[in-house]
Amino acid sequence: MVKIGDNITLGEFPLLLAPMEDVSDPPFRYVCKHNGADLMYTEFISSEGLIRNAAKSIAKLDIFEYERPIGIQIFGSDVEPMRESAIIASAAHPDLIDINYGCPVKNVACRGAGAALLRDVPKMVQITSEIVKSTHLPVTVKTRLGWDDTTKNVEDVAERLQDIGIKALTIHGRTRVQMYKGDADWTLIGRIKDNPRINIPVFGNGDIDTPEKALEYKNTYGVDGIMLGRAAIGYPWIFNEIKHFLRTGEHIPPPTVEVRIETAKIHLTKSLEWKGPRAGIVEMRRHYGPYFKGLENFKPFRQRLVTTENHEEIYQIFEEIAAYYQSGMHASM
Predict the structure, then answer these.
(1) Where are the domains of the chain?
(2) Catalytic residue among 39, 45, 70, 103
């Protein structure tokens, strides 16, 4: 049984939803939770934004009871703002605080935050220590293998962060320089899990997009669980598909068009409720392509979905999609 701290129990092999900027908001988390995600995180939140009370950062603190267990993830480059932001985040009553030491994008890493701290491990340790001392909640960390191929220092990082009190570690199997290119290398992740000094849960992240891969990486590297990111965008069913395959060795049938439509409708409804009519419609547009990926002749429907301004019309388009694919017309063209 995998546990984080004393109070978070996640089952035998938990599946985690990654914190993804502009993706892992409450509406997206809702559909992932209802399709099997065991632990989820907010989008990463700027420490500077929190202490300055920036509206966008504060909005990301929104969490709901049905999402538990859930972590709030923070990022930043300086000790005191990170400590203060951890206190603010703790007041939102998540189940844990997660620190982002893995984000590779320029506007984060080039400001000394995210994966940049892999080049300054003493500072990383100092920030983490202050956050651990500032909150009553378990503190976890997400990071990468290192900055580049010549500085893969995550083994040292894992030991030092565990020694100052983090309760779990998620490792993305790429360096910062790799960004999201090339194949993820889980070798060091497995080595950390095998390290007799490491007694906290170790979760692997990177390239898991099928139940077969999940089983292979589970068996090969011995991780305590897997974090899924891009594979869940437009396909929240992957969590239950992996769980079923790990239990039985068999596949759940893929989602029907009706299931895809119903899930997209729920996602839109939650988006409207949380963001309001304008932002709820606009920010949902990035999800339609992934939800209906692979459907024949879907392009005209997608074009309408991403240009329609009225939510009632969008729901009507969903009905048209259902009727079109139920009729078999797509196969006769």
Answers:
(1) 3-248, 257-332
(2) 103
Q: What number does CATH give the domain 257-332? A: 1.10.1200
103 is annotated as an active-site residue: yes
DSSP assignment, residue 53? T
Q: 330: pLDDT confidence band, cut at 50, 70 and 90? A: low
Class of domain 3-248: alpha beta
| 3-state SS, residue 100 | strand
Question: What's the CA gap between 71 and 90, in Å, rounded?
Answer: 10
Average pLDDT for 284-298: 94
Query: In sequence order, which ranges of the chain are alpha helices (DSSP H)?
Result: 26-33, 47-51, 55-59, 79-90, 106-109, 121-134, 154-163, 187-194, 211-221, 238-248, 257-275, 277-291, 299-305, 311-327
Amino acid at 255: P
